[in-house]
Structure formats: structure tokens, C-alpha cells
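Hi everyone, sorry if this is the wrong subforum. Our group has a chain we'd like a structural model of before ordering constructs, and none of us has done structure prediction before. Sequence below.
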Amino acid sequence: MHVADFNADAGVVTVRDSKAGKPRHVVLTAEGQKLFATLTAGKLGSDPIFARRDDGVWGKSHQLRPMLDACNRAKIKPAVSFHVLRHTHGSTLAMRGVPMGVIAEQLGHADTRMTEKHYAHLAPSYVVDTIRAHFPTLRIAEESTVTPVHGRRPRPPARSGRILSI
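Answer:
Right subforum, don't worry. Here is the predicted structure as C-alpha cells:
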């Protein structure tokens, strides 16, 4: 990822070489925007954002050992990978009630099927909350001031006093 891949105005980074083979934009939080602004300050657009100590470019597996070392120093057992961090990001969004379509877009999924398969179960109230938040009130149930006592059935409403003959 190069400095030019960070758009400070939009608060996104562009992943040009994604698994799907097409570029995608990842939205950054305010905290992420500050981090990327710090990492890119004073650098040219063609400079890498994450430079190795020897100024070389990171290869696909070059992050494994530093990530393992970081987990060991932080006493994270078992050690996590960048894939686990990606899954944690999606899971956190799902548990906070973010719509599956938004999570799919953020993770670069082509549609919501993969997102729902891996993340919908983490938001058990997702369907309930979504339906209740978006369905209109039909006014089909009478409002009552009677509060049921646990274990008892509420009494039927009082009649008008008329006696019905059969």
C-alpha cells in the first residue's frame, strides 16, 4: 500500500490488489484516519505506507514473523493473524448492528451472502431489530392500562352492563 492509496479527505484507503482482483475502498474510523495521516506525513505518493526496517517492500508472507513476535510480546495466546483481525472487524460491526450490506462493502464481499454466512449469527437480534425499526405501526391492538400479573391471565375488558339473551 502506497501513500497515494490513503485519501485523507474521504477518510479511506484503497486496496488495489485485493483477493477479488479489483480495487476496493476501506472506510477508516477517525482513529484510523489519524494513524494513516501520521504514517503518510511528509512522504511522496509513491512511498510505501508501511516500510520495513530495511526500507524494503513487504511481501505476502513477510508479516507472519513480526505479527507472531507482537502477539508474544502482548501475551496474546493463541497468536492472531491479519485474517483474524479482519474477521474481528466484521464481527464487531455485526454485533453493533451494522447492516450486512455495509459490512459486505467494507470487507470487499461481492454481495451479502458471504457476509451473512460468517457474521449474521453474531447479531442475533439483527432481523428482529431491523423489522421492528422499519415496519409501520398498524394500530391493530387496543392500548390497555391493565398490567398482567405474572402467572395470571389478564381479565377480559368490562362489558357495558347489558345482558345478552340467548
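For your construct planning: The chain has two domains: 1-50, 61-134. The radius of gyration is 27 Å.
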